[in-house]
Amino acid sequence: MERAPISALPRRAMGKGTAAGNGWRDLEEELDAWADGDRAADLWWRDDDARGPTPALRRLLALSDETSIPLTLAVVPLGTEIALAQVLEAVPGVKVIQHGYAHVNHGGADGKKAELAAGRPAEEALGELIRGRRRLTDLFDGRFHAVLAPPWNRIDPLLVPALPGAGFRGLSAFGARQSVEPAPGLIQGNCHVDIVDWRGSRGFVGEEAALAAIVDHLAWRRRCEADAEEATGILTHHLVMDDACWAFLATLMARTQAHRAVRWLDVEEALWLG
Ligand SMILES: [Zn+2]
């Protein structure tokens, strides 16, 4: 391939122990490779756990507004306040999808947290999801899209084929998708970059790790080592983000928007819901 010089670079090894700032250069080079191939490097932004108009939520909305980057809020149906819908009225571009039902852990013995965990009676889990979907449809009307983002990004695979029958058109979890349509009528579009270090500090995961995750997914797509058509998803959690998270997000948005290859999509575009 003509673009071999960039894809052939051992990027991980190169980044080790070198001066700070290489991650941004790597991102720039990766985006240049997309531009050289006349391809749009499409990204999308999902933020999880919204229930009400907290100061952090308002900060998030302001960031989307200032940057004109489409924001998709994965909202927890149970406990979501009408006040959230009222605040969103001022920001018409923000879309809403469904983040489980109650965000309660029903995880099993493996210790992994999951609301839609294996072993739960399917009718119970699906009944909750349908109730949640109806509630979000009522609260958010036209800005709600029937896309399920399972809490902790985990869902019992046995539930997936039943999602279209429960009214869902999309599924958004984490990691490069294995299938664009995991069940007939259900499109999957995941996130690939989580900027919070959940296992460690619960603060910012760090520039190097965050940028490496973005560059890796873009490079895999460009080389067709992952589904080239899956938009690269940036996952945020406004309620727990520290200053470093916010600063990184603002810088990422400014830098990507300045690059000719980048297109930021909303959830409708990212998951082909139109
Ligand atoms: Zn969550």
Commentary on this structure:
This protein is α/β, with parallel strands linked by helices. The chain has one domain (about 20-270): TIM Barrel. It is about 35% helix and about 15% strand. It contains nine helices and nine strands. Strands 1, 2, 3, 4, 5, 6, 7, 8 and 9 form a nine-stranded parallel beta sheet that branches. The radius of gyration is 19 Å and the shape is globular. Bound molecules: zinc ion. The site of zinc ion has 5 residues, from strand 1.
Offer a concise description of the structure.
This protein is of the alpha/beta class.
Secondary-structure map with pairings?
Blueprint: H1 4-7, H2 11-15, H3 22-36, E1 41-50, H4 55-67, E2 72-75, H5 82-88, E3 95-98, H6 122-140, E4 144-148, E5 170-171, E6 187-188, E7 193-194, H7 207-222, E8 232-236, H8 243-257, E9 262-265, H9 267-270
Parallel strand pairs: 1-2, 1-8, 1-9, 2-3, 3-4, 4-5, 5-6, 7-8
Helix pairs in contact: 3-7
This protein binds zinc ion (ZN).
Characteristic terms for this protein:
9 strands, binds zinc ion, 36% helix, single chain, alpha/beta
Task: Please state the structural category.
Answer: alpha/beta
CATH homologous superfamily placement: Glycoside hydrolase/deacetylase
Main sheet characteristics:
9 strands, parallel
Q: How many DSSP-defined strands?
A: 9
| Mean pLDDT figure | 92
Low-confidence stretches are 1-19
CATH fold-level label: TIM Barrel
